[in-house]
Design a protein that fits this description.
This protein is of the alpha+beta class. It has 2 helices and 3 strands. The chain has one domain. It has a 3-stranded antiparallel β-sheet.
Length: 57
Amino acid sequence: FTDYGYLRDNPAGLHRELWFHEQGDRSWLVVTRDTTTHEITKVELARDVARAEGRSR
């Protein structure tokens, strides 16, 4: 369990992450962030991304 939780790849550069906007409208977001500078380059609603990729109704 320690390996799974703590010992994983930490890619440098652009990375897509799933965020939950708990204090706002409680929506799920797909955030594209540069892991070296922490700059956020793109934010999309997760449901829109899922629909575009054919993973949702």
